[in-house]
Amino acid sequence: MLSEIQKQLLAEIADLHKVPEGAYNIRANGEAAGRNSTANIEITSKTDKPGIDIRIKPGTKNESVHIPVVLSQSGMKEVVYNDFFVGDDCDVLIIAGCGIHNCGDQDSAHDGVHCFHIGKNCKLKYVEKHYGAGDGQGKRIMNPRTEVYIGEGSSVEMEMVQIKGVDDTKRDTVAKLEKGARLVVHERLLTHGEQRAESEYTVELNGENSSADVVSRSVAKEHSYQIYRSRIVGNALSTGHTECDAIIMDEAKVLAIPELEANNIDSALVHEAAIGKIAGDQIIKLMTLGLTEAEAEEQIINGFLR
Amino acid sequence: MLELKNVCFGVENQDSAKEIIKDVSFIVPDEKFVVITGPNGGGKSTLARLIMGIEKPRSGRILLDGRDITELGITERAKLGISFALQQPVRFKGIHVVDLLRLASGKQLSVSDACEYLSAVGLCARDYINREVNASLSGGEMKRIEIATVIARGTTLSVFDEPEAGIDLWSFQSLIQVFENMQKRSHASILIISHQERILEIADSIILIADGRVSGQGSRDEMLPELMKSTVPVTCNRILEGGVSRAQ
Q1: What SS3 state is found at B66?
Q2: Cα-Cα end-to-end distance for chain A
Q3: For residue A203, what are the domain limits?
Q4: What is the pLDDT of residue B21?
Q5: Nearest-CA distance A305 → chain B (Å)
Q6: Total count of domains within chain A
Q7: Chain B residues 94-113 with a CB less than 8 Å from chain A
Q8: Which parts of chain A sit beneath pLDDT 70?
Q9: Distance (Å) from the C-alpha of residue B75 to the closest C-alpha of chain A?
């Protein structure tokens, strides 16, 4: 049974208010709190290390997998390995996410290592939300590593969201694309207090006509610190675009490092990076609509991180 | 009713001070359509910013319906019933047109309400409602959305700073229609900064601002022939320059 705190965490990270339909695996305080396989999606525990294997049969369409993780016990630290094997011609939605509630004095940490092996001609959407809560002195730490191998003609959309409450995070994402594969990443990040967030992407465009679009929008408030590093490597006829757009507030600091490497004459790569505070005329405009300065700021940030 | 009494405003640098608005007084009565016109750099936009509270006067008073609002901020003035369409509308990443209209109206807007505001400014609502108010919109589209936010607010005083700039000739008549419809609402008064002859022609009264001062004010019938005559050659030329031929 899930506690009330764990249920709240689930609602935050996976919009889940009850047990989901379809395939799911809920991990709570390091233990399996619920699992369901379906005819097309099989979830099994790993035998050599903590984590699960998720196998999706070829041709599976319009199905979803939820694999949320919640930690509500202070001092809990874990590394979990999840492997996804997606057969050819699938169209699936995978919702991961981690919520930590730490009201104790010891650090709580979840390091999720996700590896995706995606077949040919698939359409996959991956949503990962990170959230932290609790008023203890102990830190809430998440260090996800994601590896994505995208097969011929497949397209993958990744939504990576970390809006609140995670004290320390180092996110590492590596993707390798075959012929005609496409990757779209939308990262949204908000840090505050003394938080620190580091996000690094390496995307290799190995197949002809592969393409990638990696876009990060972030807001750094108070004394928080963010590093965003995005590296796109064109090894074939390919197109790549990476963009980092950050708002800084208060005493926050942001370091953005877009990086392009073209190893093929037909590789077309573009990067953009912009960091700045909220424009004064944006605040003025919303104030002329009757919003206070604080409300205006909130609307601007909410829109920016949408 | 809006009243400006002996308003002065200036900016100071380290070693110099520049007077921009010099002892300006005028009234915008209820249910009236008042146009401020005059040469570029004469202080018209500054006056609009002073009325909205974006700038504070050095001296003088500003009254709205008899209440002294000189010390009030932008938000308070907006809540008391002033709305303002900026000369250069602001873009926002991630905020949709419908969000802006919703914030302007201060209520949960139905899609059909939002569509009504957009149609009023000549935009096909279906195409725009979920567009981001970002760099993908043209200057003319931004200008129309800016006007739509003022319509959505439905306040007693609406101030427009050069609403015609960037609006194409073909849409001009519907823009005039927008102002006429707004004026029909009870007690609504409109203050427009404009160089446009066709806007001057529908004004109840016209205030001429030059070099930071009121250099003439009166009814349209009194002012318009004056403005068109060679007695104020500089102003007249500029009005024509800024007229129909300049609309983009």
Answers
A1: coil
A2: 33
A3: 4-304
A4: 95
A5: 7
A6: 1
A7: 94-96, 99-100, 103-104, 106
A8: 1, 16-20
A9: 5
Beta bridge partners, B157, equal B82, B189
The class (CATH top level) of B2-88+153-246 is alpha beta
Per DSSP, which regions of chain B are E strands? 2-12, 17-28, 33-37, 59-64, 67-68, 82-85, 157-161, 189-193, 205-210, 213-219
| Distance between start and end Cα atoms, chain B | 33
Cα–Cα distance, A92 to A89 (Å, whole number):
10
Tally of residues, chain B: 248
Length of chain A equals 306
Put simply, the answer to whether B94 touches A291 (Cβ < 8 Å) is no
Structure-block tokens of residue B53:
């509270």
Rounded to an integer, what distance in angstroms lies between the CA atom of residue B215 and that of residue A104?
71
Strand B17-28 to B2-12 pairing: antiparallel
In the block, residue with structure tokens 């823009």:
B175
The amino acid present at A263, given as its one-letter code, is: N
Q: What would the pLDDT profile of A13-26 be if each residue is shown by its tens digit?
A: 777 666 667 899 98
The answer to whether residue B233 neighbours chain A at the CB level (below 8 Å) is: no
Which tokens belong to B234?
A: 């500089």
- From the centroid of its chain, how far is CA B215? 20
- Find the residue in B nearest to A289 (Cα): B104
In this structure, which amino acid lies at residue A297?
A: E
Burial (CB count within 10 angstroms: exposed 0-12, middle 13-18, buried 19+), residue B148: buried
Diameter over CA atoms, chain B:
55
Q: How far is it, in rounded angstroms, from Cα A161 to Cα A287? A: 29
Residue B202 CB partners (closer than 8 Å, separation 6+): B33, B176, B179, B180
| CB-based contacts of A61, cutoff 8 Å, min separation 6 | A90, A91, A92
The answer to whether residue A286 neighbours chain B at the CB level (below 8 Å) is: yes
Q: Residue B244: what pLDDT? A: 39
Question: What global pTM score does this model have?
Answer: 0.84
Pairwise CA distance, residues A111 & A169, whole Å: 9
* B75 phi and psi angles, rounded to 5 deg: -60, -45
| Residue A2, beta-bridge partner list | none
pLDDT band at B246 (very low <50, low <70, confident <90, very high): very low
Q: What is the pLDDT of residues A233-287, one digit of tens each?
A: 999 999 999 999 999 999 999 999 999 999 999 999 999 999 999 999 999 999 9
CA-based torsion, B88, B146, B181, B107: positive or negative:
negative
Q: Which residue of B has its CA nearest to A188?
A: B94
Which residues, listed in sequence order, are joined to residue B58 by a DSSP beta bridge?
none
Residues of B with CB below 8 A from A282's CB?
90, 92
- The three-state secondary structure class of A89 is coil
